[in-house]
Amino acid sequence: MLGDGVDVLGNYLGKGLNKVAESANLNSGEIQTMAKGYANASLNMAMQVASTTTQQASNLGEKIAFQSVDALESVGKKALGYLTVEENVDNKSRIRPVFNFDPQTTPEEQHSFEETVNRNYFEELNGTAHLQELEKLSIECTLRYQKIEQRLSKLDAQHRDQVLELLKKVNEMFDEEAENKMEATDVELNEPATKQKTVIDNLSKAGLARAQEVLMAYKEELKQLKPEGLTESIIGSSDICHLTASYMDKTLLESVKKLSEFSAASVEQLLRIVESYLIDADVGDSKEGNKLTKDDMLKRVAFAYTVSNMLSEELNTMANAFIETIKSLNETAKNNFEELGKKGEAELAESQKSLEDLETKSSLHVNHILLDTSNAISNVEECRKFLFPICKSLVTSTVAIPAAEEVPKN
């Protein structure tokens, strides 16, 4: 069989060398000698390779497997320079507030208000920077986990089952439709994460309080325009309209700032929690001096996931508070317009026009708040996406998996 191989190889080489000979002025004898020389040399090489193929294939397979992990790590490190979270990108929908009912507002004032409302407060408050830091940690943890995944088939049954069971629990935690999830309990956090949790609690209370403060200030100022005890009102529909419109603008601006502030703080909170976990996973519990157990780490994973959901819910709660303030402003103005409209045709027409203007403004501002809330929540959801591989890496770090060189060969 090998002899046939020499002849076939010699024939192919001979045909190729014939073409070379035409330009090199070689005779046919020289051609055949060269062809057989090449063929024999190639055959010897093939036989040498064949004799060591079995042993080398096994070694090569292992080498390629671990080289692929190293290559993956190299690619991952390069990926850190191409993060999906970009700077100076504001996906906020631009909505121009309406001032058609307020002739006292100058174009400069309109432009100034629009710029103030549409500023990217999230980035100014380092929200984007913290989101990028979390993404970097996510990439690094993905590489750690994938190294373990590469060796999973070579682990003994005990280690393999432990890893798979832990990963199953993490998947269930992050599956919104999964039932019988592990209940979250408070866990011990390091100082930065604990301080940030206090910041979050204060921001939540401040946001809800601010929505009420704006409404109370409006009602107080409305009383000053319309003192009790007067038989004749000294204000008209346009006065109420301008006052209400200004407080709707204040509410919108406050909501934009508070939602962005809370969203940026939420991202930092999740980042600090993850950093606290990674420190524990690397050096162990400082009190005990030992690495965390599987149950300890699962509690931490459940806590992080639950916190991310709670932050989204609090953003919705805060947004609803500001939306309710705008609706209350509009409703209060509407009640006053109805009273003024009873005076006569002129007052009724003016009241109807003022109400239409306010309802238009109210609708636009509510939509703006909803869009801002959606952006704020999407930042938290982005964090949750980054948390998933981090949590997988953390739980698998609790299993005493042998190093690559210690893994038994099958």
Describe the structure.
The protein is mainly α. The chain folds into 2 domains: 2-59; 80-406, no CATH class. The chain has 10 helices and no strands. The protein has helices spanning 2-24, 28-79, 107-117, 121-124, 127-151, 157-174, 191-225, 237-283, 294-341, 345-396. Helix 2 (28-79) packs across helix 5, helix 7 (191-225) runs antiparallel to helix 8 (237-283) and helix 9 (294-341) packs antiparallel against helix 10. The chain is elongated and about 90 Å long.
Produce a short descriptive summary.
The chain has 2 domains: 2-59; 80-406, no CATH class. 77% of the residues lie in helices and 0% in strands.
Query: Beta fraction of the residues?
Result: under 5%
- End-to-end Cα distance: 34 Å
Radius of gyration from CA coordinates:
35 Å
Helix content: over 70%
Low-confidence stretches: 1-6, 49-54, 56-80, 89-101, 283-290
How many DSSP H or I helices? Answer: 10
Tell the overall outline: elongated
Instruction: Count up the domains.
Output: 2
| Secondary structure tally: strands | 0
**Mean pLDDT rating:** 75
Q: Topology of this protein?
A:
Layout: H1 2-24, H2 28-79, H3 107-117, H4 121-124, H5 127-151, H6 157-174, H7 191-225, H8 237-283, H9 294-341, H10 345-396
Helix pairs in contact: 1-2, 2-5, 5-8, 5-10, 6-9, 6-10, 7-8, 7-9, 8-9, 8-10, 9-10
Features:
2 domains, mainly alpha, 0% strand, 410 residues, disordered N terminus, 10 helices
